[in-house]
Amino acid sequence: MAAVDLLLITWNRRQYVEKTINNLLAGDADFRLHCWDNNSQDGTADIIASLDDPRVVKKNFSKENVKQRTPTLWFFDQASSDLVGKIDDDILLPHDWISTIAPIVRNNANAGMLGCWIFMEEDWVESLAKHKYVQLGENEVFQNMWIAGQSFLARKEILTRYIHAEHYGYGFPIDQYRMTRDGYVNGFPLPIVYAHNMDDPRSSHYLYKNDDSLAEHAALTARVRGFNNSDEYAQWIAEDAKNILIEPVKKQLKTETIQRDRSLIGRVRRRLTNLI
After folding, report:
1. Statement: the pTM of the whole predicted model exceeds 0.70
2. What is residue 119's DSSP assignment?
3. DSSP assignment of 24-77
4. What is the pLDDT of residue 204?
């Protein structure tokens, strides 16, 4: 199986990054790792600079935190594989995740972004998920309109067709709504491939259990959503997982269509939706 290209974006997550990279490089998966550090000041950049593994092929050290769009476009320019993916700096990945997911993506023309379940294992409830199972060639996939950009693979030529406009915020800049609308399947191959999110407050690796403020060093999701403490953040993650399981893809598409409609009718529909 040909190597895949992976992007790792880091920013001030030294204690997580060490575990993520040590776990990643401990396996024998065939990949090329492209690292972009967003001006870390806690020693994370030093860890990236010191990496000495032939699979680590590119290192870029930004002079400012440019979030995710700029590193992603840089990565697309650098990557040479037909398959690309992104991993986060606080995720522990199973060593066989690439060998499991890559063939499914390569063998199915309508495969979109396929990745690992990065919620807690107890958040996966098959009885709630079955209504979203779809067949993708010889494989079954739990489909969702979107998946987090924390541990996935996709074909590079597809992703580069769905790059968000620059004004779409700081997250991973791929328009999964349009991908799904156009017939590509985003989601999680079955049986589920579990990855471990160390920045979930329920994780034994979580660093901030006794810290009531997430403002300075929490994950981007926690900071953007303005959580005041770790318990609130943990509850939101669990609820988010459940919503992913139960919400039909058609409903997700309809909701996003309304959100993107800038016409007068669209504004009225959004107001009516908010009143329900």
Report:
1. yes
2. S
3. HHHS---EEEEEEE---SSSHHHHHHH---TTEEEEEE-SS--TTHHHHHHHHH
4. 96
